[in-house]
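User: Structure with phosphoenolpyruvate, tokens only please.
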Amino acid sequence: MMRHRFNPYSQKSMKYVFGNWKMNGIHEEAVALAKAVGTTKPQKYTQVAIFPPFINLHLVKKALSRSSIALGAQDCSPEENGAFTGDISAGMLKDAGCKYVLVGHSERRTLHGESDETVRNKAIAAIKARLVPVICVGENLAERESGKYLQVITRQVEQSVPSLTNPSSYLIAYEPVWAIGSGKTPILAEISEAHKTIASLLYHDTSKADKKTAILYGGSVKANNACEIMATEGVDGVLVGGASLKADEFGKIIEAAGSI
Ligand code: PEP
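Assistant:
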């Protein structure tokens, strides 16, 4: 019998479609949306995950039990346990069935004053708890317009990503703050430029799927632009906010990932 050798160059690479529900949805709505999203059948090389508010994690997990869609949380504490009122540890999220956790989303960085160091400590806590952190970075409008955006992204990556980490134990999401929820997106060349800059800062071997850190793009991704964004060089998937709250639109983004 002829044996086929693993050839990393011929391997179709994984595309990630992650839906950040933010602070939306009471129980009933969360279950209905999760069930509707759960009816989509992602292609083999598409990893889909949804990130509901903490309070709905258990219900969404149950609603997704027959689907291949994974569960993620929107934040975690850098601490393991103890007197941290109102916080949720990475271990608790693992226990609730999460595979992923967002850390350093721009809404956490700006509204909760999270520093790169805090984000890095959250990522470390997540990895220790055997979760995959999705480390978010991205410049704001003033930083983009001043032309210093690559310096900002570089600083965020250097200071938010834990060092000496296995490249496939975390993901990065490049989310320009000015594109989030605004309906504006960078042109594809700008997305590619940012992704290449991020990739150049990470220890990874792009010829081997398991030695590569996946880099997602986020910011006003919709059904009508998802395909071209995901087909852009250096883009391994998308982190979707608003459009992940509509099952049919999110379903089209999942389909787009499978078509690339
Ligand atoms: C987000 O919140 O991560 C996001 C990308 O939001 P939106 O898709 O709505 O811009």
